[in-house]
Amino acid sequence: MTTSAPARPIRIAMLGCGVVGTEVARFLLRDAEELGRRVGAPVELVGIAVRRLERTRSLDIPSELFTTDAKALVTRGDLDVVIEVIGGIEPARELILAALESGASVVTANKALLAEDGDTLYEAAVKAERDLYYEAAVAGAIPIVRPLRESLAGDRVERVLGIVNGTTNFILDAMTTTGAGFDDALDEAQRLGFAEADPTADVEGFDAAAKAAILAGLAFHTRVTIADVHREGITEVTAADVASASEIGSVVKLLAICEIDPEGTAVSVRVHPAMIPATHPLASVRGAYNAVFVESEAAGQLMFYGPGAGGAPTASAVLGDVVTVARHRVDGVFGPGETVHAQVEVLDIGRARTRYHVQIDVEDRPGVLAAVAEAFAVHDVSIKTVRQEGRGGDAQLVVVTHEADDAALAATVRQLRDLEMVRGVSSVMRVEGVS
User: Fold this and answer.
1) Which domain holds residue 297?
2) Total domain count for the chain?
3) Residue 101 annotated as binding?
4) Is there a binding annotation on residue 111?
5) What is the pLDDT of residues 310-323, one digit of tens each?
6) How far is CA 327 from the centre of its chain?
7) Where does NADP(+) bind (predicted)?
8) Could you tell me if 401 and 354 are in contact, meaning their C-beta atoms sit under 8 angstroms apart?
């Protein structure tokens, strides 16, 4: 009886050792034997590139693994997998390209780079015949990239609706459950560690927009960058907006919305706060959790839910990709690359189809409702519901529209503001998830 020679070790290097990187390294070292059994070859962490060697790090990570020469590490020539968790555009892009050119597959959590210049990374991976995997770039531990990239590859995805930023979901959830204003809810999120000292990337929607670009590209086989994504944050959402949503049986969420038209000729990708019915599955996503709701022709409605950030949850997604990529190296194959065969038009926000919830402060006198209805009719916007609240100086009309082009809805709001009997339009918010 003969036995095969043991497989050579899969050599792994890592770029960055922050919150996520520390957890990835810890699991790689602690579970090396078990991961090796799953891969079919020993797994060996051979180096970690950091900016400063003197920074205090986990005692579980041997100091001899650290180096400040990231370029030398990724180009050493004997690596099988490089994990990138430093974030940002540069030097991450340069180092990923160097790793691929040097023969290593890449696992990255870098949503910003993928959303800005993913095509460059994909092309380099194809040229090198190496893998580029990035499950951790969208929604932390939630497996959504691979289902869109592989599991639903034979289906027709029609819509992806997601809560993909935990900070904003925590803030909006706090505003819903406590009645707090935005500033107070943000302060609480920062106190509890759910928001950064500078929360701009989260509360202004930049983080969610990058993730939306990635999801749309995967779902619709079309190259989408962050520049294609319409983006609005939550800083203008008020306690009154949240209360108004409650009055119509809805909640306010920051949503990433990716959808294709019925003809399959154009896609819309947008991030903005919206009211969704309290009965919608996404309405029950609480705190800092994330969820992605997928609608497809054959599979129907699917929802993926879980922690969207944090060291250990994100490390789980990274390690899942590492095992897959390492198996490919053992077998001498590589996985799916970018699919942009559809390459359909990406619409600007004005051509997106949506609904509005509009609160209009009006004079309490005859003819007001007719004038308001006429402003909607002029722009071919159909009214679904209208109700009056208050009397006299507190009179207010609350209008919910049927679906229309966003440009027509925006033009209607502008005309409303010019009407003599309208004192002001106090709130405008899109409505999603309503049939």
Assistant:
1) 144-307
2) 3
3) no
4) yes
5) 899 999 999 999 99
6) 28
7) 15-22
8) no
